[in-house]
Amino acid sequence: MFSEPLTIADLKKRAKWRVPKMFYDYADSGAWTESTYRANETDFARINLRQRVLVDMTDRSLETTMIGRKVSMPVALAPTGLCGMQHADGEILAAQAAEEAGVPFTLSTMSVCSIEDVAEHTKEPFWFQLYVMKDRGFVGDLIDRAKAANCGALVLTLDLQILGQRHKDLVNGLSTPPKFTPKHVWQVGTRPFWALEMLQTKRRTFRNIVGHAPASSDLSSLAVWTAEQFDPKLSWADVDWIKERWGGPLILKGVLDAEDAKMAAKTGADAIIVSNHGGRQLDGARSSISVLPEIVDAVQGDIEIHMDGGIRSGQDVLKARALGAKGTYIGRPYLYGLGAMGKKGVTRALDIIRKELDVTMALCGKRDIEEIDREIIAKVGF
Ligand code: FNR
Questions:
Q1: What is the predicted ipTM?
Q2: EC number(s) for this protein (predicted)?
Q3: Are 338 and 93 a contacting pair, CB within 8 Å?
Q4: Is 308 annotated as a binding residue?
Q5: What's the confidence (pLDDT) of residue 176?
């Protein structure tokens, strides 16, 4: 029915066919009018590359480091909540695919599979993303669990003190409190492969949170508890105590402003991720790629800079690298892969991006990702 997926868009089509609508829409949505969600993607197309010819293009290398960790290309998997609802055991499968591909996987606080589930099924240290909840005892426990699981970095998300509103989730009843209706039964019933796989796993709720919330342990009660738990008072002082409690490599995620980037650099964290949460928080915010150059200029090498938002190809990764991101993250591209084909689909998403990155770099006349800088950019149209 579907031909071999050659692009991330092909994986997206397959995921739509395989995943129940409420969970597919959860991935493929942004806040309010989705203008920032769209801009993240379309602004990449406003950057032109310089084509070079008759330079040696043999023996190319995409290897680099992100916060000192060797990576096979400058791409990591971003933390995504409910990843295990795109496919049964989704976080475990994505982490295994990332490990095989030599890139970091980041597990979300709001994952279905827990820190311990993923640790049990992987060999390499993965990264753990932390949301700061009002219940600081719980936050401390999460940090300790990530340490015990030998996580390689803590990714602290700064841009979700309160939840942005996504219309598709409200329409689908994937809101708080969730409304489970005959429509959902229909949506699941028409996705039999997904449903069968889901029936075969015991991992079907927010397993990092089970046992902490006073509510019962089903997905909807935990979602209600969590939505009330995001801390609107989160401050730079909190970053200091989290850094101290964690004691390992720290990445600050969700910086979109040059002044905030300077503050972040002062915390002594190892990296920041220039990000607007994939257009899921402040609709009307600028795209991540358009903000990246001014943040790079503002911090002037004081802290390593990563970015995410809108990357759908290897060309996009190369453009981000050229504009100063040492590393990038993909969210939806691997979720589509996971929804479409499970672990194989995540591997496919990474393979697609790797191939595109390699060929694009060569056509720009470069053989090593470490040589990439603004010189390969012909024009920036924003
Ligand atoms: C996210 N994102 C996210 N970020 C985070 O820090 N913690 C989380 O739990 C989630 N959850 C989440 C769920 C889904 C379905 C999506 C699509 C995104 C944001 C994510 O880490 C990343 O910033 C964006 O996904 C990057 O944009 P692209 O690659 O999806 O365009």
A1: 1.00
A2: 1.1.2.3
A3: yes
A4: yes
A5: 60
Coil, strand or helix at 43: helix
Check pocket membership of 81 for ligand 1, CB cut-off 6 A: yes
Alpha helices per DSSP H over the chain: 8-18, 21-27, 35-42, 90-101, 115-120, 136-148, 167-171, 182-189, 192-199, 219-229, 236-246, 258-266, 288-299, 314-322, 332-341, 343-363
Q: Whose structure tokens read 């449903």?
A: 195
Q: What is the DSSP string of 108-140?
A: -TT-SS-HHHHHHT-SSPPEEEEPPBS-HHHHH
- Give the residues across from 66 on adjacent strands: 69
The residue nearest atom 25 of ligand 1, judged by CA position, is 331
Domain residue spans in the chain?
8-380
Answer yes or no: are the C-beta atoms of 36 and 283 closer than 8 Å. yes
- Angle of helix 332-341 relative to helix 8-18, nearest 10 degrees, comes to 50
Residue 177 has pLDDT above 70, yes or no: no
Catalytic position from the list 121, 184, 212, 277: 277
Helices (H), 88-230: 90-101, 115-120, 136-148, 167-171, 182-189, 192-199, 219-229
Tell me the CATH architecture of domain 8-380.
Alpha-Beta Barrel (3.20)
Atom in ligand 1 nearest the alpha carbon of residue 108: 9
CB-CB contact of 234 with 194 (8 Å): no
275 belongs to an annotated ligand binding site: yes
- Give the residue-averaged pLDDT of 334-340: 98
Instruction: State yes or no: pLDDT of 1 exceeds 90.
Output: no
Q: Is 27 in the pocket of ligand 1 (CB under 6 A)?
A: yes
Atom number in ligand 1 closest to CA 309:
27
Work out the angle at residue 268's Cα, subtended by the Cα atoms of residues 264 and 271, and round it to the nearest 5 degrees: 65
For tokens 């790629």, the residue is 289
Cβ of 349 below 6 Å from ligand 1? no
Do residues 364 and 111 make contact, with C-beta atoms less than 8 angstroms apart?
A: no
Judge if the beta carbon of residue 252 lies within 6 A of ligand 1.
Answer: no
Q: Is 277 a catalytic residue?
A: yes
Mean pLDDT, rounded, of the chain: 95
Query: Residue 44 and residue 40: Cα distance in Å, rounded?
Result: 7
